[in-house]
Amino acid sequence: MSTNVKVGIIGATGYVGAELVRALSRHRGFQITSLVSQSYAGKAFADIYPALKGITDMICSPLDIDAVSSSCDVVVTALPHGVSSEVVPVLLGKGVRVLDHSGDFRYKDRSIYETAYKLKHPAPHLLAEAVYGLPEFYREQIKEARLVANPGCYPTCSLLALTPLFRRNLIDPDSLIISAASGISGAGRKSDIAYQYCEAAESFRAYSVTGHRHTSEIEEILTLQTGVKTAITFTPHLAPMKRGMLATIYADVSSGCDLKTLRNAYAEDYDNEFFVRLLPEGMSPDTANVAFSNFADIAVFFEERTGRATLLSSIDNLGKGASLQAVQALNIMFGFNETEGLI
Amino acid sequence: MSTNVKVGIIGATGYVGAELVRALSRHRGFQITSLVSQSYAGKAFADIYPALKGITDMICSPLDIDAVSSSCDVVVTALPHGVSSEVVPVLLGKGVRVLDHSGDFRYKDRSIYETAYKLKHPAPHLLAEAVYGLPEFYREQIKEARLVANPGCYPTCSLLALTPLFRRNLIDPDSLIISAASGISGAGRKSDIAYQYCEAAESFRAYSVTGHRHTSEIEEILTLQTGVKTAITFTPHLAPMKRGMLATIYADVSSGCDLKTLRNAYAEDYDNEFFVRLLPEGMSPDTANVAFSNFADIAVFFEERTGRATLLSSIDNLGKGASLQAVQALNIMFGFNETEGLI
Amino acid sequence: MSTNVKVGIIGATGYVGAELVRALSRHRGFQITSLVSQSYAGKAFADIYPALKGITDMICSPLDIDAVSSSCDVVVTALPHGVSSEVVPVLLGKGVRVLDHSGDFRYKDRSIYETAYKLKHPAPHLLAEAVYGLPEFYREQIKEARLVANPGCYPTCSLLALTPLFRRNLIDPDSLIISAASGISGAGRKSDIAYQYCEAAESFRAYSVTGHRHTSEIEEILTLQTGVKTAITFTPHLAPMKRGMLATIYADVSSGCDLKTLRNAYAEDYDNEFFVRLLPEGMSPDTANVAFSNFADIAVFFEERTGRATLLSSIDNLGKGASLQAVQALNIMFGFNETEGLI
Amino acid sequence: MSTNVKVGIIGATGYVGAELVRALSRHRGFQITSLVSQSYAGKAFADIYPALKGITDMICSPLDIDAVSSSCDVVVTALPHGVSSEVVPVLLGKGVRVLDHSGDFRYKDRSIYETAYKLKHPAPHLLAEAVYGLPEFYREQIKEARLVANPGCYPTCSLLALTPLFRRNLIDPDSLIISAASGISGAGRKSDIAYQYCEAAESFRAYSVTGHRHTSEIEEILTLQTGVKTAITFTPHLAPMKRGMLATIYADVSSGCDLKTLRNAYAEDYDNEFFVRLLPEGMSPDTANVAFSNFADIAVFFEERTGRATLLSSIDNLGKGASLQAVQALNIMFGFNETEGLI
Predict the structure, then answer these.
(1) Chain A residue with the nearest C-alpha to that of B307
(2) pLDDT recorded at residue A338
(3) In terms of domains, do A284 and A193 share one?
(4) Looking at CA atoms only, how far is residue A306 from chain B in angstroms?
(5) Is position C60 annotated as part of the catalytic site?
(6) Of A95, A129, A163, which closes a domain?
(7) Is residue D290 within 8 angstroms of chain A, CB to CB?
(8) Considering chain A, what is the average pLDDT of its residues?
(9) Structural domain that includes position D90
(10) Which residue in chain C has the smallest CA separation from A196?
(11) Number of domains in chain B
């Protein structure tokens, strides 16, 4: 850990960026050398997030790709989709490695992306190379990746629960239903009546009921595991809390399969994974237990009379669902202990 | 409305009782004549609920069935299951009508009840007579009922969304999945670490994942409509808010059926129902919009690629899910306008 | 109550307006005939506040003073200060009575207003006539008033606790300190990062630490009672809740005065006031107990070793602090029972 | 940092203990060797706090002072007052150093303690030796202390704001008023109706209005600085949030003193203190900015027309107000960098 890897963050002033700054500030291997924000250029980062006064005295700078790339070994982009795919190729061209938070490089199949995001992909040649940054499934590829696409929050939460069963054909690919709830930080740091305290407190509601983009991300990653197609029903909800995510997932279980088989699948995949905790039989995850952490808590229930399994998976949408999973991937990319900065 | 119907409440000091007192206090047809509480006997009701100071000056009395029944035309029981079924037959024997909040009289099939509640029913002879107090489906029977069983909160919320489709065979009875979230008042007024502010705020979690009693209540009522059996997967969750409930329900739609067909079913059943609001196409219910009311907000979405409908139904668990639905039933029982005391 | 008083609301779509619509909809004496909103003209009120679907089917109209005044007996204005004072004189000129929610007509001394609000008053000739709409102190004047200025939320909360002691010279006018906390609805319905759920939940903070406008309003009203000047220290805070307000007030007590004297002052002023509840000795108010009501809960503590009294006063900032106090005043203006629509 | 200081925690399963475990687990100098809990003896700590699964696999043990003292260099006691003072002398007798969280060793004057806590002190001979664990004022004494009394949360929050002004005679000792609000974790981890989610959410209330024990603690520590007596009015409140504390403090300022003088006092005392942040002029602290940290944010306002200063001080009640301040003191006691484990 004598090295000091220099990292820049573009789009630093959203909640994802702030959480990255917090985590990287206590990391012994990374040094933040650049915080880029168009809207807050020239302003001290700690003036935007006063919680970080004393932790960082960096000043936000406007986007200058030459400056960023010459001062960084790796750049984390936390930009809107469509914008990322304009900036990332230029950064790669300068020789820096990139970890991107948008949806732009999460897909192998460009047409699925273009349908989901309703725009033409400006850099489709990078899709084959980009690595989906879910360490539990793509650790080896992340190590050497030039470009890591940090997974979406709902996909991270859902895939950690679904993949062990899906890849072993323990569940019917046509039966998958995900009912998930997220804390309000998932909507980002922006002023919008819908996310005002008085509108969002004491309120529980679904949104994007049948068309959320993360549906196709989950489907594609599952299919990449086994070649089997799946069409998922996915309903995101907003829960009145700042952080946290729970996915409650329903799946018809393959015949002959019981709770033990299901739990074994998780044990095999996760017994050596520090950040995935398979809960004891009968215990359910609680978002409060993963808040501010990179942990994912998983439980599985099986009901014989319906033949259906209920999978429960909980993460912090800004932790394992965004910034802290990014730090985990950065640790892998640069050879640090995977838990460095994360516990 | 010149009449003054005398009503007593047994088990008055829980959240259900307090909400009843609040609603009946502004009702022009009912007069509360008795508030029974074993634990708070002798104490002013407004000392337990200081919000009601100035609204009621009644003193809680211990349970004395003769006293209650001689001073009341109708008694509302808000007692634990197993206790209700001991008290209710005695009250009926005294000639008063009863509206009961427990699960004890909601079932026609005693064995389903006994399996779900894990006890022998002490008054099974009343099950045939008891009327399930969901006015939208049992209004005529409620009018003359001696004994009304107020529905459970999850069943009310789920059945309002499921019944119109189920009774028209528009959904596959083997495909029904309910993922529902309730505000914490659903757990009642009791001290328990799990419901402490610091444990429940910023927390979203499932509970009773495969064995919640309300599952069998929903199944039985659906089956009573059409004779068709159904086995439902039901997952209740606790959301960090005081009041409110949202059921997100998944169902495979019968072939040939589209969104229009589904919406028509609701329109037919609810166009004349004041308290059920079918939302405009594309709009989702929000628990905040039904808080402190007897309304139920319902939406339906259909996704062709999966052949599945997503039904959303929202109520206030203490409103349409308990006390205010009770007032609606009482209005029907005593010939008042159905909205009296409720808007 | 055979009369049907016609009321219009200008600036109807803020939280104050919505609360007025809710309360007036269940009032048996008033009929809302006009809901004016520049930003939402043409839109159904229940589309902005879906909670009110079924309760009101009114459509928002643009501001047309002739139309409003010809269709109303009284107009409630819920407009920003500076705007109210432009609109109100025109309305009065058309012969309608007005209840105004802004700060524009709460002062007798124009210069205090102009200093506090940093603008020149456009209708100073109305200040002498306008009645401060705190029924507990100005009931007789409200009855006949053409123009009622609904008090601010902090002034209502503070004055109800301070006035009985101040007017009896029981407290030192130079010693008054008010530390108050409000729910976030006090900031109004607007998108602003500061009031986003993720910024406001789990946050308690002071604002406008030494210069809040309500300071001068409280001072002026106190002085109008006795002629004695006072300079108050006032610190408002934002508490992470939707509604509710608590003022914790400190005052040096006049020599010889004890707790009994202090409590007697409240008893004398409020024993016949339905909406002011002097709590039993030793009990403290809780904002939860006045939420959604027009009640004010008041307590007084006295500590001999410091010679200081601590006054606690709690209201719902949208209830007694705004819309419901307005309804109380409207009841007085039009001869209805003072509690009509309010319990 | 090659040393591995062994630390035990007695009374480990409350919120203070859990926060200590979390902080010490990522500390590079301390190793937890003993977690004592009478109620949970034999149970894995991570079963009580599932958030810590993977972080600690320790099992709670019953109280065995010989075992604890032989396995530890220092013991942290998080016990009720009255119990601490029984256990601490025994621990000291065994040769371990002790950091105590109760009020038992915070006072020099036994009679003040006995009046405030209404019990006879069982170990008054230790009061002279015990060091008040506020590093910003007692750093040198903490270094060598055998017994450190961790300050109360309200005293920490208040004293950090008051002391710099008080010790320079810039404020009138007879004028001090503290209106403070705490998050609900301040009430500890226990089941009690008053702290249930449904009772505490959307609720803001004062408690212990004139007799909170922390009053005397603040007074004594101030007086120890200068010899000047003071009688403070202190009102604690409960705010609907999990963590965080804000003290809003009023003081009459000495004649001739202005805002610059006041700010200078803070600058002199705190410019080299990492954990105390004097905010820029005009900015107010927000509990959200210190949550989960050991920071204290301080602001001062001065109003010429009243001659009064308003001091604002914010901490996390479980951070600088309890467990993290304890870690800071432990760092000092054992020669670690003061920020180790805390950023």
Answers:
(1) A233
(2) 97
(3) yes
(4) 6
(5) no
(6) A129
(7) yes
(8) 96
(9) 5-129
(10) C196
(11) 2
Interface check for D235 against chain C (CB to CB < 8 A): the answer is: yes
- CB of B317 within 8 Å of any CB in chain D? no
Domain ends where: B79, B95, B129? Answer: B129
B161 and B232 housed in the same domain: yes
Give the residue-averaged pLDDT of B45-54: 97
Evaluate whether ipTM surpasses 0.90: yes
Answer yes or no: are the C-beta atoms of B146 and B200 closer than 8 Å.
Answer: no
Judge if D182 and D303 occupy the same domain. yes
Residue D50 to residue A297, Cβ atoms within 8 A: yes
| B186 vs A: CB within 8 A | no
Helices D153-166 and D214-226 pack at an angle, to 10 degrees, of 30
* CA–CA distance, D203 with C206 (Å, rounded to integer): 17
Residues A16 and A74 in one domain: yes
Asked if residue B275 is part of any domain, the answer here is: yes
Query: Domain containing D182 — which CATH number?
Result: 3.30.360.10
CB neighbours of residue D274 within 10 Å? 17
CATH of residue C73's domain is: 3.40.50.720
Same domain, B178 and B303: yes
pLDDT at B252: 98
Domain assignment present for B337: no
Is C147 strand, coil or helix? strand
- Among the options A153, A157, A198, A257, which is catalytic? A153
Interface contact B287-A244, CB threshold 8 A:
no
For residues D66 and D181, membership in a common domain is answered with no
What are the pLDDT digits (tens) for A56-113? 999 999 999 999 999 999 999 999 999 999 999 999 999 999 999 999 999 999 999 9
In a domain, B141, yes or no: no
Band (pLDDT 50/70/90 cuts) for residue A191 is confident
Same domain, B168 and B287: yes
Cβ neighbours of residue C42 under 8 Å, at least 6 residues apart?
C59, C60, C61, C62
Instruction: Indicate whether B196 belongs to any domain.
Output: yes
For residue range C169-196, list pLDDT tens digits in order. 999 999 999 999 999 999 999 889 999 9
Task: Compute CA distances D117 → D87, D104, D105, D213, D214, whole Å.
Answer: 17, 9, 12, 7, 10
A307 & A228 share domain? yes
Q: Could you tell me if A163 and A220 are in contact, meaning their C-beta atoms sit under 8 angstroms apart? A: no
Residue in D with minimal Cα distance to C311:
D209
The residue among A47, A198, A292 with the most chain C CBs within 10 A of its CB, best to mutate, is A198
Residue A28 C-alpha, separation from nearest chain B C-alpha, in angstroms: 30
Residue B200 neighbours by CB under 8 Å, 6+ apart:
B184, B194, B238, B240, D197
Q: What is the mean pLDDT of chain B?
A: 96
Other C-beta atoms lying within 10 Å of the C-beta of residue A55: 17
Q: Which residues of B touch A157 (CB under 8 A)?
A: none
Secondary structure (3-state) at B60 = coil
